[in-house]
Design brief:
mainly beta; Methylamine Dehydrogenase, Chain H; four-stranded antiparallel beta sheet; globular
């Protein structure tokens, strides 16, 4: 009798344990698998949002006037989708496993247009029928995209470091080089790009993402935070400002929009520093901090359209803000939603 009584609870608990296990399995299947979301870009009208998500491809969202996100589709051809620029009905993707990839976005579902297969794409800048591709150890590649169906490689400059991003102004390309810092290239003759200046800071510059305005460039520089560089003399760039709020703070993404600078900071220790940092650029050589908005989980790059700002949240998707008042950003929506974000942030 005593042995039977001891066995009875195991018989009763076994179905319960199986139900709990099945529940975890179903939950794991249902959790949105967003991939590692690196970059985000609004379409020209602000009604579409495109998120590059590593091996998960390109996520496409509809953005309502109120700022609500609705997933439309995910496009994946091949490789690792890292950074993106949108120009009218085409998206130009820096694919770190292939190089430059171009897709048509005139419809809800993107369509393949053209792609490299033997290069690498880490960052990209599109301007005046040119696509400038930061290609890691392959340096800077310049394409003529007058006809996006058949781009033509016009020129290539290989440095000794790793080109991670590029911003172009007039006849100069400014490369964020992961190992070397800032490299200035004269691209007035695209077939013969020439390095004319450079600038490094510390033993490990970690220059990852770059944007600019006028005579200044702004570099998200990993553990070095934000680096501001005066490039009025492209041959002799000079640092004018550095922002690094903590020992474990990492500058991950940067965007200049008018007199406002948006910076994404990652910080695994201080939650208050991890997220969105907004600066006033009335004095472009020394940005003034206006506000911070902390976000759980690691952040990467960002994009602005009108009063909406989208911030990639790596494996936790994307967050959308109202930034009509830069000193008081308001979180509007996220994908995945609040319920699922709990799991995407803590379950890998």
């Amino acid at each position: 009798m005593n042995k039977q009584r001891r066995k009875r609870p195991l018989v009763l608990y076994l179905p319960l344990l199986l139900i709990v296990l099945l529940g975890f399995v179903l939950l794991w299947i249902a959790i949105p698998k967003v991939g590692y979301c690196f970059d985000v870009e609004f379409g020209n009208t602000g009604e579409r949002l495109y998120v590059t998500a590593g091996y998960k491809g390109l996520h496409v969202f509809e953005v309502s006037p109120q700022g609500m996100l609705t997933p439309i589709t995910t496009y994946l051809s091949d490789g690792y989708y890292r950074y993106i620029e949108v120009d009218n009905d085409k998206a130009y993707i820096a694919n770190s496993k292939r190089g430059l990839e171009i897709v048509g976005i005139q419809d809800d579902v993107p369509t393949p247009v053209w792609a490299q297969t033997d290069s690498k794409g880490y960052g990209i800048h599109v301007e005046d029928n040119r696509a400038y591709l930061a290609s890691n150890e392959y340096g800077l590649q310049i394409f003529d995209i007058t006809n996006p169906d058949t781009p033509v490689l016009m020129g290539n400059l290989i440095s000794t470091g790793r080109a991670w991003d590029v911003w172009v102004h007039e006849e100069y390309a400014f490369i964020a080089d992961r190992d070397l810092g800032l490299i200035v290239v004269n691209v007035s003759t695209p077939s013969q790009p020439r390095e004319i200046g450079s600038l490094s800071w510390g033993q490990d510059p970690m220059a990852e993402v770059i944007d600019g305005a006028g005579e200044y460039v702004y570099v998200a520089s990993g553990m070095n935070g934000l680096i501001v560089v005066d490039v009025s003399d492209p041959n002799n760039p000079a640092i004018t400002f550095q922002y690094d709020p903590g020992l474990d703070s990492w500058g991950e993404g940067v965007l200049v929009q008018g007199n406002t600078l948006y910076l994404s900071m990652a910080d695994a220790i201080s939650r208050e520093e991890n997220g969105l940092h907004i600066f006033d650029l009335s004095e472009p050589s020394s940005p003034r901090l206006l506000s911070k908005y902390p976000i759980t989980d690691h952040v990467e790059d960002l994009s602005v359209a009108g009063t909406h700002l989208a911030l990639t949240n790596t494996r936790s998707g994307v967050a959308l803000f109202d930034v009509h008042a830069p000193d008081n950003p308001v979180l509007i929506d996220t994908y995945p939603g609040r319920f699922w974000r709990f799991f995407t942030q803590y379950v890998r």
